């Protein structure tokens, strides 16, 4: 289990601030044992998109495996440079739906509040990769108060998602105070916090932080495990801190070529999430953001993968496969059409093994 901050020294490698201070932000600073991975790494991609890896997340990489799924998620490669001139930098049109600096409203009843542009580790497939690391400015107190005023003036907004960057990189008292201020708005039903720190910086998540957040519930955590190797004892303990405090944890994976696009890996990940008391919520198709074409899995392949899981895993383990439509039109679930035909007497379905099964009308 993670120790409380009061039990840490600032020079302790298990302290989250030590991890941030010692994050790798240049390829040349990678430890010597990771030299084999530099053959496919690209300094030019570092210049175009933000790059940083915590020592903890770096330790999950097998430096002898050029196809390592953890390295693929965080090390920049020349593949990122191949389609930057044609791909989209804001694929889900967040800029057009920005109603105030840092406040995005794409749905009538939900709003997204970007508290910071900083992440502990920058994912190479991130939808906001072109806006991170300095491009998303920290939300000043004045702008936060403007956002609160907007939420009060729009009581149709029932759900507020805190995101960034990673909002849990803020100090305990700062994030808790922001949550408390939002909770004080009568029309806000739930608050969600989008964070990948359970995956990339799990020592940040302490029982104390979880308890303080839970006091302003209902709170939900949306996190982002993509591969079963990310479910380390430290990561599981971070999720447990939330769940034990009464905060549900949902997982939003992204389907990534070379990372998790096979049924065995997905099944291991989804079972592991359930064991960690984390609900598999969404499996996203990778957004067509600049520099991510090499991650994208064909939709037909994605549906094949879902078919391979159904009937073999508990329904609790099956996430919803979704596409976040361009133009800010929102998420839609993707599934094969199981209804083949409807007559006056029966409905004919396609079973997961492709047999036709009839059901009385």
Report on the structure:
By secondary structure, the protein is α/β, with parallel strands linked by helices. It has one domain (5-340): Aldolase class I (TIM Barrel). It is built from eleven helices and 13 strands. The chain has helices at 16-21, 43-48, 55-58, 69-74, 141-153, 172-183, 197-200, 207-214, 233-244, 263-275, 299-309; strands at residues 98-100, 103-107, 110-114, 159-163, 190-194, 219-223, 249-255, 279-285, 320-325, 330-333, 339-342, 346-350, 356-360. Strand 6, helix 9 (233-244) and strand 7 (249-255) form a beta-alpha-beta unit. Helix 8 runs parallel beside helix 9. The N and C termini lie far apart (53 Å). 39% of the residues are buried. Mean pLDDT is 89; it is low at 1-9.
Short structural description:
The protein has 361 residues and is α/β, with parallel strands linked by helices. The protein has helices spanning 16-21, 43-48, 55-58, 69-74, 141-153, 172-183, 197-200, 207-214, 233-244, 263-275, 299-309, and strands spanning 98-100, 103-107, 110-114, 159-163, 190-194, 219-223, 249-255, 279-285, 320-325, 330-333, 339-342, 346-350, 356-360.
């Amino acid at each position: 289990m993670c120790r409380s901050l009061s039990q840490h020294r600032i020079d302790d490698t298990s302290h989250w601030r030590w991890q941030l201070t010692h994050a790798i932000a240049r390829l040349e600073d990678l430890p010597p044992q990771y030299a084999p991975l530099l053959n496919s790494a690209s300094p030019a991609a570092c210049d175009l998109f933000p790059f940083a890896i915590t020592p903890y997340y770096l330790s999950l990489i097998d430096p002898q495996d050029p196809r390592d799924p953890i390295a693929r998620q965080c090390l920049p490669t020349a593949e990122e440079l191949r389609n930057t001139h044609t791909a989209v930098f804001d694929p889900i049109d967040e800029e057009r739906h920005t109603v105030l600096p840092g406040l995005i409203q794409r749905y009538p009843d939900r709003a997204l509040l970007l508290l910071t542009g900083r992440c502990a580790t920058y994912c190479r497939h991130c939808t906001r990769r072109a806006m991170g690391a300095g491009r998303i400015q920290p939300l000043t107190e004045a702008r936060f108060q403007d956002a609160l005023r907007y939420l009060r003036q729009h009581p149709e907004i029932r759900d507020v998602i805190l995101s960034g960057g990673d909002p849990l990189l803020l100090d305990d008292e700062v994030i808790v105070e922001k949550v408390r201020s939002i909770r004080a708005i009568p029309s806000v039903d739930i608050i969600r916090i989008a964070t990948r720190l359970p995956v990339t910086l799990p020592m940040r998540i302490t029982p104390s932080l979880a308890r303080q957040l839970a006091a302003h519930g209902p709170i939900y955590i949306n996190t982002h495990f993509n591969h079963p190797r990310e479910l380390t004892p430290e990561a599981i303990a971070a999720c447990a801190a939330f769940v034990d405090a009464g905060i549900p944890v949902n997982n939003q994976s992204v389907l990534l070529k070379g990372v998790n696009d096979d049924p065995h890996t997905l099944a291991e990940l989804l079972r592991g999430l359930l064991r960690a008391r984390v609900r598999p919520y969404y499996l996203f198709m990778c957004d067509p953001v600049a520099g991510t074409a090499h991650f994208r899995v064909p939709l037909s392949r994605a549906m094949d993968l879902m078919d391979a899981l159904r009937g073999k895993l508990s329904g609790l383990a099956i996430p919803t496969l979704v596409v976040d439509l361009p133009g800010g039109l929102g998420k839609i679930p993707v599934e094969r059409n199981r209804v083949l035909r409807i007559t006056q007497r029966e409905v004919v379905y396609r079973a997961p093994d492709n047999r036709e099964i009839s059901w009385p009308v």
